[in-house]
Inverse folding.
């Protein structure tokens, strides 16, 4: 089955620790994205990548880092510099040329204790 | 600055009736608009889209209307069914390079509840 796999689904972290969220896709999509969802705030773009070895900051990139070493993979690291990391994180991919039709993973819920 | 706004956080509609979800935007560069549907603890799924060269797009029970002069779009669902109960996100994008529309800006969502 083609799709986007995010792991872990639930993650708990102590303050001051970095944590990496995994995102893998087998849709052969060029572009990949990380969004964050908070109650009442909709989805906000953290980072996106249109091609391998290239990525751009989104609207709320501070405290996060990404890499895009393979087309299929776009991991997100939530660093200790992120002040409010507790949120629902969504990874998405798209063909990259057509406007906007993103395919989303099922999300990862991060809770900082 | 919220460029895409969904001013109704929630909406309840009787089964079989029409559901109308509204969305306003401020950025005149937006030229493509989408609606996504999201169930709890799942990722959003694409529902329907519309380009700024059109004012209406229909797909089965779902119709999206775009009023460019008012910077307003709406999603109509008719007839509404219990399975339509979900959070609906409006999203917009602007073509910024020859690579196409690079990113989406989402609204805050409207929780639709269909009452049996």
């Amino acid at each position: 089955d083609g799709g986007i796999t995010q792991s872990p689904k639930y993650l708990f972290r102590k303050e001051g620790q970095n944590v990496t969220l995994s995102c893998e896709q087998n849709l052969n999509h060029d572009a990949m994205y990380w969004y964050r969802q908070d109650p009442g705030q909709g989805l906000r773009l953290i980072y996106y990548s249109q091609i391998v070895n290239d990525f751009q900051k989104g609207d709320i990139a501070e405290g996060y880092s990404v890499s895009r070493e393979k087309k299929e993979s776009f991991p997100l690291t939530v660093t200790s510099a992120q002040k409010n990391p507790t949120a629902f994180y969504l990874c998405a991919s798209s063909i990259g040329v057509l406007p906007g039709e993103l395919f989303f993973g099922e999300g990862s819920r991060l809770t900082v204790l | 600055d919220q460029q895409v706004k969904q001013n109704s956080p929630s909406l309840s509609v009787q089964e079989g009736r029409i559901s109308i979800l509204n969305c306003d935007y401020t950025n005149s560069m937006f030229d493509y608009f989408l609606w996504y549907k999201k169930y709890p603890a799942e990722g959003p799924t694409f529902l329907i889209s519309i380009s700024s060269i059109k004012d209406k797009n229909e797909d089965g029970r779902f119709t999206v209307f775009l009023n460019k002069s008012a910077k307003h779009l709406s999603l109509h669902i008719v007839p509404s069914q219990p399975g339509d109960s979900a959070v609906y996100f409006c999203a917009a994008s602007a073509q910024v390079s020859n690579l196409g529309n690079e990113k989406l800006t989402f609204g805050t969502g409207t929780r639709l509840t269909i009452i049996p």
The mean pLDDT of chain B is 91.
